[in-house]
UniProtKB/TrEMBL annotation:
UniProt protein name: Rieske (2Fe-2S) protein
Cross-referenced Pfam families: Rieske
GO molecular function, one term: oxidoreductase activity, acting on paired donors, with incorporation or reduction of molecular oxygen
Gene3D superfamilies: Rieske [2Fe-2S] iron-sulphur domain (2.102.10.10)
SUPFAM superfamilies, sorted: ISP domain
């Protein structure tokens, strides 16, 4: 599974999102309470730009007239027809048994870790080198 750097952590503040192109796919990366999630930017209903939709919460009622609003900012509504999806899982609230939007694993990695993991293999010759430090954290999306 290939990993792609899509942003620095500070580019997507809590409650924010960034829509990126990765491996020919449009993907929305969301920060919900400091955790990152990625969804394909295409509503399975009619292909609307799902990740451009409004984030809201979930309204539940145990008895008529008594409502509880929960999961604020975790439910994504398609801007075309209002179909709702759980940002954390991609599950639809309209038809949870059959409809979902593709979600992708997301990691946060230190810049130093990325530089070490993606560098070339060492060869027999060594040149003079200098210490380089990378101090930011990066958001990575995995695409199968």
């Amino acid at each position: 599974m290939a990993r792609y750097v899509v942003a620095t952590v500070d580019e997507i503040p809590p409650g924010g999102r960034k829509i990126v192109e990765v491996a020919g796919r449009s993907i929305g990366v969301f920060n919900i309470g400091g955790e990152f999630y990625a969804l394909r930017n295409s509503c399975p209903h009619q292909g609307g730009a799902l990740c451009e939709g409004r984030l809201s919460g979930l309204l539940l009622a145990t008895v008529p007239g008594e409502y509880t609003y929960s999961r604020r900012g975790e439910i994504l509504r398609c801007p075309w027809h209002g179909w709702e999806f759980d940002v954390k899982t991609g599950q639809s609230w309209f038809d949870p048994a059959r409809t979902r939007v593709r979600s992708y694993p997301v990691q946060v990695a230190e810049g130093k870790e990325l530089a070490e993991s993606q560098g070339p293999q060492k060869g027999p010759y060594v040149a003079e080198t200098y210490e380089v430090t990378v101090e930011r954290q990066y958001v990575l999306v995995e695409i199968p």
